[in-house]
Every structure is written in structure tokens, then in C-alpha cells.
Write a structure and sequence with these properties.
434 Repressor (Amino-terminal Domain); DNA-binding; elongated; 12 helices; Rossmann fold; 3 domains; alpha/beta; 12 strands; 342 residues; homodimer; six-stranded mixed β-sheet; six-stranded parallel β-sheet
Chain lengths: 342, 342
DNA sequence: GAGGAAATTTAAAGCGCTTTGGATGATTAC
DNA sequence: GTAATCATCCAAAGCGCTTTAAATTTCCTC
């Protein structure tokens, strides 16, 4: 059923039917009711391709997921996208998902822009100095970044958590518990969030006049395996850390495994604080959660990011919008006072 | 830059330019070269909405992800989709992602069909008796199911792993190792894969004349937390299981936690076999992998499913296509002979 | 070198929608 | 009673592409 057929059935022009359905004022209320009733009776849905061709708006948002050979598909992206998706459906937008390897990234953005398949994009996993920002500005495609560029605080919209502050607080808690040798198991170092977390960590350490030991600072994809390897290596030192600060629940599961393998008890012999993105499959819940954590729902961030982007598309003059989310520090079972002799 | 402008620049008709770009035969080779060169020079990309309006093909595939209040976003879906996405980009298709709660599911499918936003869909997480199959047949929308309907083996395309066989083999291995009390930690029972795995498990048990204890058969979302709770409960029985068969790596991490908490050693006191979807964030690798597992890459399944669907769209007469993937049983460190007295 | 076939190109219609620029009555104002 | 105003409705153009039908050019053949 298309517009033409529907309007034939109603003995009305396409114009009137279209206007009735889109709530334009210049149509009699009685006919509007009649039209809407017929539309739902015949389950008429305007063809979105035709609509978007006529209006020039794609009614779709693009998410371009970077995929390295190593980091394949981060569950954190997935959850963020699930959040965004809900915001889109509410507003009648579609979500276009593209994966890309880093070497083809720029051309993917260019293609998407010139094909006109989306009205805007969400940028995932911003790097230290991210060329995508200027690219998108050049392409004149509205966007919101999940995270920020580290070097460029300029004119663009973003949503981010306060990584620095969270990791500062978490580190300070560990220090207050008497820990002095703290291992940081962080994300890939080129990523912006990892830099900011390192900054918060470093600040707390130097504030307390503790020195950093590069040997127990780790960077890598936030997988279980990487967490395990890093923690195993750290614990094997003659002077092992008494505490770990871990950038994700997933790598923390690997850290937990390493601690158990070393015949140590988490929360007693070794303390652990994680950043908890509140992934639905790895949620750190319970009266006393397993891990002490800085928490922030990445799904909610996805929803907010989507809403921001849609509002920018509606009213470009309001851009840039920014939003900084604070993580909540929650005490769980994985932290305790330093019991080592040192 | 659009077709009109491009053809004006080339002093050719839109027809010829369009044909040149789409490799139609009725255009002089020299002009084709000239056109293509100009197209790439001006970075011309046909507007996909216009193209699809003209051709009647959306050049997009829909993935509709069911989201319960409990199960939010399964990393397995994510990885499957990442695989599919690669197949789509190769063929110039877009991937449309929609999330839906189960109560609005049917209307989401209907809407997608009548809006004409996609040429086909992939159906995720088929249930025991899944109404989506007949719905999609009625809507005349090509589809491929990741999994199968349990009750309906009829006329539709699917790709699935041999769940029954895998779990039969895994169970048999445990039995051969002397285990008689085996706990099954499975997915949500309405889902087809969980049924089939249960069947394989049951067959191996009854073949060996062992009785099933309903108290140590668990169903639920395949989260870490659920794995932990199930295993903790099972191990608390007066007569605890000596082995676990676990439907995912993620819940197995919870099982591992429960085993440690009970002061038992995995692979020595308690054996564990998992099904490993080879998720990139939770890959069970190494010379001797942590877990003994039945393995099958869900990302590869996504890629294959996508290719199947595209081929069905190209040549509808070849449907239905089906593909059964065998999982590989790999011995890891989590299994050993039964050492209990029973 | 004329006739016909083959190769190459083009004009124009059409995909399903929105939107501009009228039309057509009905209503109001004087 | 006529002009001006409103409320409704409609015909037709246009979004950017593909494709049909037709025109033009080139190439053979004898």
C-alpha cells in the first residue's frame, strides 16, 4: 500500500493525505481523522526511501565501529549502541551500523557522507589526536563523540565520563588504604579515555608523593586474557603490587583469575578497583558487589548521546553540546587495607 | 555532486553516465573509462535513497535484536553482527540495527517490511516455537535464522551449529572421565539452542544409564552472575556435581568464581566444559586453553549468515538454504578424571 | 556507396514521497 | 450584494536515480 493507492481509496489527493498524516494544519480535522484511520486500517507506512529523497533527510544515524585486527568487537560498543538505538526508535530514526578497519576509516566516513545515507554519526573510541573531528567538520556532517579528543577541546559535541576524576578518586582510595604499589591495567594507550585515566591515577600518586613504576602500568584491549596476563606478570615481580586499578570489568575477571592462581585472596591480600560500565552481561551488583568500582552506565551514555545528536540535527544552531557524566564510586568486596610488610 | 552535475560536466546524458558506472554493456569502453575517472575525481557517490527508490531494492539488511528487561544486549549478538557487517560492506549493503522488546516484536517486523527499509532480515535467537517464521513468510521478506525453530523444520533458511551433537560429545567426555553427577548451566529454556543442548546432554546421560537431577540443571541468561549463582547453588548440595557443562564462556567465568569460592580447584576437583563462541573479548586461547570447550566462531556464523541472505536475495529460487556448523571439541585445563569417592 | 545491422547515446518516464502555487468554495465584512 | 478573507483541497513539480523506448552514429557487407 502506497500513498497513491491510499489516497485513491479515500478519494483524496496525495497532497491532502500526506498532510493529514504529517499533521500539517491546512487540513480539515474530520478528514485528518478519516485519513489516519484508513492508514492504520491498511497498515500504510510511508516508504522511508521516498520520504527521505523528497525531504533530503535520511532519518538515520550512522555508527562506525573501528575494528582492529586485535580488538574485534568491544561489548562496550554494543551496549552503547543498544542504548542509542532506543532513542532512535522513539524518534523514528534508523540506526546504520558499519564496521571498519582503521586504514579505511576515512573513506568510510566520506562515502557515508556523500551517499547521503545518514543525517549524522556517532564517533566511537576517540583517539589521542583524532583526525575524524576535522574530517566530519569538513564533510559538514553532524556528529557527537563518545569521549573527547585529548588535544582538541574545540568546537564539537561530545559526551564523556569524568575519567580523570574517577581514577583520581579510585587511586586515592587505594592510597588511603595504605597501598603504595598500585598496578594500572588500562586500555590501549592511544585512546583518549586511557590517557585521562592515567592522568587521574598519576595525579593521585604524585599528590601522595608516590613514584610510578612503569613496569606495572599496562595498556591493551580490555579483554579477560589481557587482564590475566598483565596481573600475572605484575604479581610475579619480587616486589608485587598490593593493588590493581583496572579499566573494565572484563579485564578484571582476568585479574581475579591471576590473583587466584597466585594463591592470593582478592580484597584481603590484593585490592582491586575497577571501572564498571554496567554492562548487562557483566554487572557488578549485589548488596556488596564483587568489585569496588567507579560506575557509569554506558548504555545510558548511548541513549544520551543519541538524544544529543538528534537535537543537534533538529536545531544545528544549538551545537556544540557537551555533557560530562560523573562516575559513582561504590565500595565492594575487592578492597581492603594493605597488609603487606612494606 | 549528483548524477546530473556529473553528466553535465562530462557532456553526456545521465543515462550513459549511470550505465557506465553500473557496468552495463551498452556503453563504449572509452566513455566508461572517462566516466569512472571523473566520478572518482569528483568523489561522486550515487545517492543511495534515490537508487533504492528507483530500483526498489533497499540495499540494506535488518537485524532485529530482541531485548528483554533481563537480557539486555548479548555480546554474542554483537559479535555475530560484526561478522555479518563485513559481508554486507563487501557487497555494498548497509546494516540496519533495531532493538525491540518482545511485546512489540511483531509490529517492528511489520513496520520494517512496509517501510521498505530493508531487503531482508536476520532473525536472532529463535525460540522453541517461533512465530516470526510465519510472519516473515507472510510479509514476503527474505530472511535467514541464526538457529532453527525446534518444532518447525519446514521451508526456511537457517544457519546453526550442531548443538545436540556438541553437547552430546561434551557430556560423553565427562562421563568417560568418570563423572556421573553433571550440572548443566544452560541458556533461557524457551530458546531453541538451549533445548537442543539439553537434548544432547540428556541423550549422553541416558545412553550411559545415568539419571538426570533436575536440581542441578539451570536455565537463564548466559551472564557471569547467573553462572556464579547456579554453580554456587549446585556446589552447596550435600551431593554436589563433580562436573559442569556450561553454555557460554561468560557464565563459565561465574562458574569458575564459584568453584574458587568453594576452595576447589577447577580441572582437579571439578571439571568444566564450556561452549566457546570464540568471542574476541573472551577467547579461550593458549596452548592449553583455560577451558575444555566445544568451539565455533559466532562471528564466522554471522558472516556466513549474511552471505546466505544476500545470495537468497539475488536468487530467490535457490531458497531455502541451510547450513549446519560443527563445533570442535578442544581439550583444555578445566577437565580431569572424577576424583570423588562416589 | 547504399542498405542494414550493431554499437552507442539520449529523452523521458517513473520509483513514492513532499511541497509549492494555485484553485474552489465557504465565510466574513462592509 | 460584492469584495476580501479563510479554510480546504488539489495538480504538478521535484528529490536523484534507473530503465524503457527511440534516436543517432558507426561499422559491415556486397
Amino acid at each position: 500500500m502506497n500513498l497513491k493507492q491510499l489516497s485513491a481509496k479515500l478519494q483524496l489527493s496525495q497532497t491532502t493525505v500526506s498532510r493529514a498524516l504529517n499533521d500539517y494544519p491546512e487540513v480539515n480535522e474530520a478528514t485528518r481523522v478519516r485519513v489516519k484511520r484508513a492508514a492504520s486500517k491498511f497498515n500504510y507506512q510511508p516508504n522511508i526511501r521516498a520520504t527521505s529523497l523528497a525531504t533530503g533527510r535520511a532519518k538515520a544515524i550512522g555508527h562506525i565501529i573501528p575494528i582492529n585486527s586485535s580488538e574485534v568487537f568491544n561489548p562496550i560498543f554494543a551496549e552503547f549502541i543498544a542504548g542509542a538505538s532506543q532513542a532512535y526508535s522513539k524518534r523514528g530514526y534508523e540506526l546504520l551500523l558499519t564496521t571498519t578497519e582503521s586504514n579505511t576509516e576515512e573513506s568510510v566516513y566520506r562515502t557515508i557522507a556523500s551517499k547521503g545515507s545518514v543525517d549524522g554519526v556517532i564517533v566511537h573510541a576517540p583517539r589521542f589526536k583524532d583526525s575524524r573531528i576535522s574530517l566530519l567538520q569538513e564533510l559538514n556532517l553532524p556528529f557527537v563523540i563518545h569521549g573527547r579528543d585529548y588535544s582538541n577541546t574545540g568546537d564539537y559535541s561530545w559526551i564523556d565520563i569524568n575519567n580523570r576524576q574517577s581514577f583520581y578518586q579510585a587511586t586515592k582510595l587505594l592510597i588511603d588504604l595504605g597501598h603504595t604499589r598500585i598496578s594500572l591495567i588500562n586500555g590501549v594507550e592511544t585512546l583518549n579515555f586511557a590517557r585521562r585515566r592515567l592522568m587521574g591515577f598519576t595525579k593521585a600518586m604524585t599528590d601522595a608523593q608516590l613514584t610510578l613504576d612503569q613496569n606495572i602500568l599496562f595498556n591493551g584491549d580490555l579483554t579477560e586474557a589481557n587482564g590475566y596476563h598483565a596481573a600475572t606478570k605484575a604479581l610475579a615481580f619480587k616486589n608485587p603490587p598490593t593493588a590493581f586499578l583496572v579499566s573494565s570489568y572484563m579485564s578484571a575477571l582476568g585479574v581475579r583469575r591471576a590473583i587466584h592462581n597466585a594463591n592470593l585472596q582478592m580484597g584481603v591480600d590484593v585490592s582491586v578497583i575497577i571501572h564498571d560500565d554496567e554492562l548487562s552481561y557483566f554487572h557488578n551488583t549485589g548488596d556488596v558487589p564483587q568489585f569496588t568500582a567507579t560506575r557509569s552506565s554506558v548504555m545510558e551514555a548511548g541513549m544520551l548521546a543519541a538524544e544529543m545528536l538528534l537535537s543537534i540535527i533538529d536545531k544545528p544552531e544549538t551545537a556544540p553540546l557537551t555533557k560530562l557524566l560523573e562516575a559513582r564510586l561504590t565500595i565492594g568486596a575487592s578492597t581492603g587495607p594493605n597488609r603487606s610488610d612494606t
